[in-house]
Amino acid sequence: MKKIVIDARMINHSGIGKCLQNLIPLLAGTYRIILIGNKNEITEYPWSRHISLIHLDCPILSIQEQLRLPLAIPDSDLFWSPQYNVPLFPIKAVKRLVTIHDVYHLSYYNSLSISKKAYVNIVINASIALSGKVLVDSVFTKAEILKYIKVDERKLVVNYNGVDTSVFRRITDRATLDEVIKKYNLPAKYVLYVGNVKPNKNLKRLMKAVAQIDREYRIVIVGKKEGFITEDSELFELMTSNPELNERVVFTGRVDDADLPVFYSLASVLAFPSIYEGFGLPPLEAMACGCPCVVSAIASIPEICGNAAHYVNPYDVDDIAQGINEVLSNSAYSGMLLRNGIERLGLFDWNRSAGKVREVIDSLF
Questions:
Q1: For the structural domain made of 174-347, what CATH number should be given?
Q2: pLDDT tens readout for residues 171-217
Q3: Hey, what CATH class is 3-162+349-363 in?
Q4: Minimal CB count within 10 Å: which of 201, 211, 291, 334?
């Protein structure tokens, strides 16, 4: 049984964390897995009891990471980085595998400081050069990598993420719904956003769009404030300068995983107007919970959502508002989107995704 070491320091991050949480237990029966990360975070997951852990708590994309992570990696057959922040120094693993979810920092290169430009260039190029294979979440991300980096296309393997429909499903139990409403003080009607507040999430335009829809709807923002570039300070300036809008916004922070399907089930619509996504799980989770989606017509989002979402121009506030209004006011149309969504979900299965990871790992030996 091959010994696989996985960098699990991002186990609780919004997108990458979901991938780790779902793939690790599915791979544990095939390989001897060792996780590197914060033990307190990893041991929150029941499956971690059967997996070896090495405690390491250092920031991602940092000098400290480059000094401490290589020393933490034991003798092993393969080291898997779930993001391009790979160790640049030699490690004790025979082979390397990396997953690149997106190359946002290359696409929006000019938004970075000079030091971050240099660092991002080094680590992204190194992650590809040092790894035997590169897993990517979408055809879009594969094309983006080929646009910015000279690499053999055969090295890049598209592997879609999944949705656990046993977890993400429409919740109708009244007691469960009422419990979550009370716990988070949720409004009766709301537009839902799930994710972080990084600039590519486009929350400033979304809030301006929500200001144009019926006042009976508020916007509920689920997710913690995190970002490698910066938190979207303009977002908070917009709220503080507009008391009326501020009253319509509910920030929950990070919510319990068990509660998230309830948020989707209670929402009137999910708004996902990102200007850049390598994949984007929230629309699929929303579809599984019977929540119609209004999403951006750019990046990987059309590839993932297909005919199961209403598309808008994410740079046009009026178009975002009109899209939300269309879904809210047209039950026949939103019902069609939901039916298409159920069919669409068949493409995104964690077991299938884990199978592709096994196939790629085995191809390296």
A1: 3.40.50.2000
A2: 999 999 999 999 999 999 999 999 888 888 999 899 999 999 999 99
A3: alpha beta
A4: 211
